[in-house]
Every structure is written in C-alpha cells, then in structure tokens.
Design brief:
Blueprint (H helix, E strand, L loop, with lengths): L1 H9 L17 H22 L3 E2 L22 H23 L3 H22 L20 H19 L8 H5 L9 H17 L10 H9 L9 E3 L23 E2 L1 H7 L11 H4 L53 E4 L1 H15 L2 H22 L12 H8 L14 H12 L4 H10 L5 E2 L4 E2 L26 H5 L3 H7 L20
Antiparallel strand pairs: 1-3, 2-4, 5-6
Helix pairs in contact: 2-3, 2-4, 3-4, 4-5, 4-7, 5-7, 7-8, 8-11, 11-12, 11-14, 12-14, 14-15
Length: about 500
C-alpha cells in the first residue's frame, strides 16, 4: 500500500492539460532567438574590450579597463543559453528529428550545436563539451579548445550532409513552423553551415600548420552569395521580450557612447575619406559633430554638454516612447547572426594571406559594398531617423582609392580588418573580438609598419587583476562554475585572478 501510494503521488507530475512531448520543430524558435540575441547581451561587455563603445561614469569601469565583475554573471549570457536554453532541449530536438528522419531539422540542430561550441570556446577558451549533458554528473570537466574547434567542424560536416538530403520526412512547411530566420529553407541553412565552417577555419591564422586559406575561400564561396542570404531575426516588438535587445524600449544601452576609435575609422582621420555610413550608424553630438569618448578618460572629460556624443538612439537620454531611433538600435531592427559582408571580408583576408591579391580585392570590395546596402536596409526596418545612403554617395566612396585601391597589390590587412570591424560593429561582437585577439590588438601591418587596427590603444589603467596584461578570454559563468564546479576550474587554472588574460589556444602556438 505504501509503494502504491508513492507511485500515485508521483503521477501528479503528469500534466493532463498539456503535452508531455512536443513536436520536434517547436523546440526551435526560442533557440533561434537566443542564437541571435544572447551575443548582444554579452556584447555590452565584449564591446568595451573591443572599444566599440564605452560606459562613461564617475570612474573607469571594469570592462573598459579589460577587467571583469567578480561574483557576477555579467559576460555569461551565451554560457547560460548554450548549456541551459539550448541544453537538453537541443538534445531532445535532435534525437526526435533523427528518429523521425527529419534530416533538415536535424541539420539545423547540428548547426545550432556547432554555433554554441564555437561562440563559447571563442569567448572562454576551455569549455565543457563531453560531459555537458550527462545527467549522472554534478561536476563537469573542461575540454581543451583544440577539441572544441574539431567538434565544431565535425558537427558542421554532419549538418552539411543532412541539409543536403531530400529523403525521409524532409519538409519545408514543417521546418518553417519553428524557423523564424529562413522560413524552413534548408538551402539557406546549408549556406549558413558552410559560412560557420569558414569562420571556424579562418581563426587558425596564428597556427600556420592548421590554417588553409584555400579551404576558407572555398567554404565562403559555398556560403552566402548576396545580402539576400543574411541570417536575420525579426523582432515583432509586441512586448518587451520580443523587441530588439538594443531598442530604446529595452533600455539596455542608453548610457553607452561610441569611442573615438570607431569614429576615427569613419571620419577621415585614419583613411582620409569620410565614410557615408558614419552618419547612419553613429550618433552625433547635440552640436551635430561626430565625436567619441576615450575609455581612459573618466566620464565625458572636458566635453561640454553640446559636444558630448548622444546615445545610439540619437538622444542625450532615453528618447520618448515612439520617437524614431537609429540603425541597429530600434525596437524592430532585424538583428543578424551572419552576413554576406562578414563572409566576404573573411574571404578577402584568406586570399590576401594566400597571396592572391586580385581575389582579395574583389572580395573586399564586395564586403564594403554589401555593408553599405546592409546599413540602408537596417535603417528601413523601423522607420529610423536617418536618410538612406544614396547611390551617388556609395559610388563616390567606393571610387576612393584610399578605401578601394585601384591596384590589388596596394590592398592592406589594415583596410580589410578595419572595414570588417565597421561591418561587425554593434552586432558581431564574438567575431570582432576574435579578430582583434588574432592580431593581439596592436600587431603591425607589414605593408605599412603601422597597427592593423589604426589608433587602437590598450587601456592605460588596466584592471588590477590583469597584472598589466590585456584580456584574452572571459571567465566561465560565475553562478554555474565558481559556485558549483570550482574543482574543475582549478584544474584549468580558472581560479587564478588573472585567468582572463591567458591567451586562447587558437592564437597561441606555444600551447600544445
């Protein structure tokens, strides 16, 4: 009788009003949301490492000094979403998709799994993969970054096979019910898989024995062919949680301001030509001039109220409800996970390193041109308060030899990486930071004897725990790791105060 009662008691966990098992495609929408949105959560902090923006206050902030917030989950959103929002949900979706022979959905699931490991290892270095979904464990060991990169490649190669299949129950209508990026078009997910694999392979530049520019170029060529392939998530903006994270209603970036570093990339200081995108992406001050802040200077320094750059919505403070915003900082702006322009700059770098300057210049020009069109498109998403870049403005800018050299042999890494920085600014935080770390922030362009990233300066007042070293990784998420998994952290040295300054394996060939 006792055992029977116990069994009956446990039966209350069965919900008679809701399904215990859902259709595999219904797992997909929240995971796609987080794939696009969670990098923006962490972008508040990564964006300060890369000096896309700064947070002026009464003192220099930890992240502007390449530090971190002890005892905080700041910088751990993608960690949370890969292990929890995806977590067992992604395992269940892929298991069901495979059992039902829904190869297109399985391929998308494998892309999501690969994306998760890619962004986490790029942010944190060593991560938990092999034991991540083992329900028998309460502590989890970390795997080396080399394994993480190889696992991403394995998953993407599997995804490419599955996304190419037409047998079984492959069905665009079924996939589209949960696919709010490509509406069930597996051909576009196939391109996305090739693009993510190109990104993975492009990161090996500091490990020459593993870097193959020909492979990177071929992968890009199999990926996006125009802006029409861009992976974009639309935000309905009907309530707080389905609005763009950067929009004024969410109020997540109101107090941030652009840096002088990014302004100088676009105002003619670094390249001699004013970029027409500057007035459509960045925010002017009340006096209509474009300025940025120095992360080494407290607050706004000596700038008067009329000289201080507005926030990214285009106002000194949070704008009134319904007021028009700018670029990616509007409630309904579509946010990208990957773009054609981004991939063209990856191809340009690979071709440049290979010595094929003709291919490099063509891809580089495609990237600049495509991003101008991207800026125009995003500024139409929510009736933003800026004009479109005209065909004449675009043509004049592309005709500037300081921007697009007439001779392929005059193209430089500085041009490629600076234009890629502009194209990734405000959304592509993970890739942008990986780029800057691959060049160790201040590496010199051999063609010019100047920095690849002109004008970038490592903060003069680095966070005390850094020991005078720049940041190269974010510490694992505090609440799940430092509270519950500390022994595993000690095994990889993550208990050290300066762990965040340890270079990643992918950029440090001295590590085995």
């Amino acid at each position: 009788m006792v055992f029977s009662a116990c069994s009956d008691y446990l039966d209350v966990n069965t919900n008679p009003n809701g399904p215990q098992s859902v259709s595999a495609n219904l797992y997909l929408p929240p995971m796609l949301h987080w794939m696009v949105t969670s990098p923006q959560y962490d972008g508040r902090f990564v964006g300060r490492y890369t000096q896309q923006w700064t947070l002026p206050g009464t003192s220099l902030s930890t992240w502007d000094r390449m530090g971190y917030d002890p005892g905080s989950d700041n910088g751990g959103q993608q960690w949370r979403d890969v292990y929890w929002s995806f977590g067992q949900n992604l395992v269940d979706m892929n298991t069901k998709a495979q059992a039902q022979q829904r190869w297109d959905l399985l391929g998308v699931g494998q892309v999501l799994k690969a994306w998760g490991w890619q962004v986490l290892t790029d942010l944190h270095g060593e991560i938990i993969i092999k034991e991540a979904t083992d329900p028998t464990r309460t502590a989890f060991d970390y795997d080396p970054q080399k394994f993480a990169y190889e696992e991403v490649q394995r998953l993407l190669n599997q995804a490419i096979v599955n996304l190419g299949r037409t047998d079984g129950l492959v069905d665009q209508t079924y996939l589209a019910r949960g696919d709010h990026i490509y509406n069930g078009d597996r051909s576009k997910w196939l391109k996305y898989a090739y693009g993510l694999l190109a990104i993975n392979m492009s990161h090996y530049t500091d490990r020459p024995s593993l870097y193959n520019p020909d492979s990177v170029i071929k992968l890009v060529d199999k990926s996006f062919t125009s802006n029409a392939d861009d992976a974009l998530l639309a935000y309905p903006a009907t309530n707080n949680d389905d609005m763009n994270f950067w929009g004024p209603t969410r109020d997540n970036i109101t107090n941030y301001r652009q840096t002088q570093f990014v302004v100088n990339l676009m105002n003619g200081t670094d390249f001699g030509v004013v970029d027409p995108r500057m007035s459509r992406m960045l925010a002017p001050a009340p006096d209509s001039q474009y300025r940025g802040l120095d992360p080494n200077v407290v607050g706004f320094g000596a700038l008067t109220a009329s000289q201080r750059p507005n926030n990214f919505y285009g106002y000194p403070t949070l704008p009134p409800s319904g007021a028009p915003s700018r670029y990616l900082f509007a409630n309904k702006t579509k946010m990208p996970a990957m773009t054609y322009a981004e991939l063209q700059f990856i191809k340009a770098e690979a071709a440049f390193r290979k010595g094929d300057k003709v291919t490099a210049l063509a891809a580089y020009r495609n990237g600049v041109s495509a991003h101008i069109d991207f800026v125009n498109a995003r500024n139409l998403d929510d009736n933003q308060a800026v004009t479109q870049i005209s065909a004449a403005e675009k043509a004049a800018f592309l005709a500037s030899p300081q921007i697009i050299p007439t001779d392929p042999n005059l193209l430089t890494l500085t041009q490629i990486m600076s234009q890629k920085y502009i194209a990734l600014w405000a959304w592509g935080h993970n890739e942008l930071w990986m780029d800057m770390r691959r060049f160790h922030y201040t590496d010199v362009d051999p063609a010019t004897a100047n920095q690849v990233y002109p004008g970038f300066r490592i903060p003069t007042a680095l966070y005390p725990d850094n020991g005078g070293l720049p940041v190269y990784r974010i510490r694992p998420r505090y609440n799940s790791e430092y509270v519950w998994n500390f022994a595993a952290l000690q095994a990889i040295g993550a208990d050290k105060a300066n762990y965040h300054t340890k270079p990643l394996w992918i950029i440090d060939p001295s590590q085995p």
